[in-house]
Amino acid sequence: MHSWSNRVSISLLGRVRTPPQPLPTMNYGKALKIARAIKGIQQAELARKAGLDPSYVCMLEKGKRRPSLETIERLSSALEIPTHLFSILATEKVDLNRADAEELTRVGESLARLILTDAPKYRKSGNRNSPSRQA
User: Fold this and answer.
1) Is residue 37 a part of any domain in this protein?
2) Which band of pLDDT confidence, cut at 50, 70 and 90, is reported for residue 13?
3) What pTM does this model have?
């Protein structure tokens, strides 16, 4: 019998089989929109900083293209955020069901560092806007 459960099953040939895993639904278009809004950066400027064609960045945001790992790294660098934080912005609810505990720990640590690093800047300036927008 080949019905899948939460456990591993054995095939008729004696091979160990695991249930098929659904593909991740990472929404990098959503992540780009959120990160650009936080940073106050236009698509064309982001494309320039990342060394990408502006039309490609537009297609990524619309969900018409899926970025490669290299593209994700370029965008993260241009947005000045760690790659794993950019990826967590792209996460959909269903993806969190399969989340790796180590990855969630790294995300939590990065968020804490960002909050602890940026919070004093906000308090000193008395401004609730992003420090990058104050230039």
Assistant:
1) yes
2) low
3) 0.60
